[in-house]
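Appendix B, record 7
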Amino acid sequence: MAKKNFEEALARLEEITKELESGEPSLEESLKKFDEGVKLADFCNSKLEEAQQKISLLLNRNGLITPVPFPQDTNSIDTDL
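Structure tokens (predicted):
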């Protein structure tokens, strides 16, 4: 996978999803696209985790920098499939 930023990776992941949902690719091509999609999802997830860590360092409470954990979204997609 070429070096991408979050937005490019997310856009490509959306393209792959549409292609797979169309049912047009062959089984072999679908597997390749699925593999690429998993890698992109992992990349996006790591970038989001990095952003969460940076934000937690910037949160300021009573003049002190206090890390605050992010609430877990119960509607999130499990990427450990």
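Remarks on this record: The first strand starts at residue 60 and ends at 61. The radius of gyration is 17 Å.
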